[in-house]
Amino acid sequence: MPSPSRDHQSQSSLSLSLSGAIFPMAFANFHGLRALQISSRETIFNHGSCHTRTDTSNSRCFAVKACSKKPDQNIHLESKLNSVLDSVKWDEKGLAVAIAQNVDSGAILMQGFANRDALATTIASKKATFYSRSRSSLWIKGETSLNFINVHDIFLDCDRDSIIYLGKPDGPTCHTGAETCYYTSVFDALDDQPQVEENNKLALTTLYSLESTLSRRKEELSSPQQGKPSWTKRLLLDDKLLCKKIREEADEFCRTLEENEDESRTVSEMADVLYHEMVLLIRRGLKFEDVLEVLRCRFTQSGIEEKNNRKPKIIN
């Protein structure tokens, strides 16, 4: 997991605010109440007030303007947050496992621990926050490296003793510089496979294993080639061939519907389409995660509205 010493923030003053000040803001975000305009990574909320707070205990300035709505509404939000925090089965040390997961790729980024204050801070700031057992204090992932994990949602498991921060990382999560903290394969170790560098062996799902393989094929093109190139390399070297195959595979995929072909044919043709389109993404230096991010951003927008708002094509 990332080292708290790399991404550590003193939380002495913040912990004091968690007794009540920060609670209403957290659920205000979820209920669409634009209660805060945040100019830093801390959030403070006082009932019925607008103020700016400067924290000089650690030479940081936090400027937070808070304009609350009705006091009784804030109390209701605070009660709801307390109810959620109370429902977590904290262990004897007041901790629960907290896992960060990439909202687009599904990759498990890291695992740490959270206490009540860390979870409340994450809800309020939407920055993944953990509890450092070695330092006995909160730490925000990315405080030092700036590789924050921007939290989109939080999930509790069925037993309510572990937490998932579902978010988008700003950069590599691991302190080694790897995309995630999980790059050591137990099965490879048992099979006496050589341990590779952290960026080359990540815990990848099927889709991203394919993408990783395609990326390696592209990298191999810079080295002298022996024998006939693989199909992937041929596609990477010939734009016309690549585009021709994408159009052909897309047509075959559509015909499985038009001609009422067997479902297995539809799945097979879709796999062909996906493979060839991913080769084009690699050819352009893009990742499939970029596509998923665009799709996620469209969830709250109608297809017609999205299309009308698209930028005009730019031909280089």
Secondary-structure blueprint:
Elements: H1 12-17, H2 23-30, E1 36-38, E2 64-66, H3 71-87, E3 96-102, E4 108-114, H4 116-125, E5 129-132, E6 137-140, E7 149-156, E8 162-169, H5 186-190, H6 206-220, H7 231-237, H8 239-258, H9 263-283, H10 288-297, H11 303-308
Parallel strand pairs: 3-8
Antiparallel strand pairs: 1-2, 3-4, 5-6, 7-8
Helix pairs in contact: 2-3, 2-4, 6-9, 7-8, 8-9
What attributes characterize this protein structure?
HisE, histidine biosynthesis, 11 helices, 8 strands, single chain, 40% helix, alpha+beta, two-stranded antiparallel sheet
Walkthrough of the structure:
This is Phosphoribosyl-AMP cyclohydrolase domain-containing protein. One of its GO terms (molecular function) is ATP binding. The protein has 316 residues and is α+β, with helices and mostly antiparallel strands. The chain has helices at 12-17, 23-30, 71-87, 116-125, 186-190, 206-220, 231-237, 239-258, 263-283, 288-297, 303-308; strands at 36-38, 64-66, 96-102, 108-114, 129-132, 137-140, 149-156, 162-169. It has eleven helices and eight strands. Helix 8 (239-258) runs antiparallel to helix 9 (263-283). Mean pLDDT is 80; it is low at 8-68.
Q: How many beta-strand elements?
A: 8
Runs with pLDDT <50, length 5+? 8-68
What structural class is derived from the secondary structure elements?
A: alpha+beta
Biggest sheet descriptor: 4 strands, mixed
Strand line-up across the major sheet: 4-3-8-7
Mean pLDDT: 80
Strand content: 5-15%
- Secondary structure: helix percent: 25-40%
Q: What is the radius of gyration computed over CA atoms, rounded to a whole number of angstroms?
A: 24 Å
Shape, please?
A: globular
How far apart are the termini?
42 Å
* Number of discrete helical segments: 11
Q: What string gives the helices and strands in order?
A: HHEEHEEHEEEEHHHHHHH
GO molecular function: ATP binding; phosphoribosyl-AMP cyclohydrolase activity; phosphoribosyl-ATP diphosphatase activity
Catalytic activity: 1-(5-phospho-beta-D-ribosyl)-5'-AMP + H2O = 1-(5-phospho-beta-D-ribosyl)-5-[(5-phospho-beta-D-ribosylamino)methylideneamino]imidazole-4-carboxamide; 1-(5-phospho-beta-D-ribosyl)-ATP + H2O = 1-(5-phospho-beta-D-ribosyl)-5'-AMP + diphosphate + H(+)
Pathway: Amino-acid biosynthesis; L-histidine biosynthesis; L-histidine from 5-phospho-alpha-D-ribose 1-diphosphate: step 2/9; Amino-acid biosynthesis; L-histidine biosynthesis; L-histidine from 5-phospho-alpha-D-ribose 1-diphosphate: step 3/9
Protein name: Phosphoribosyl-AMP cyclohydrolase domain-containing protein
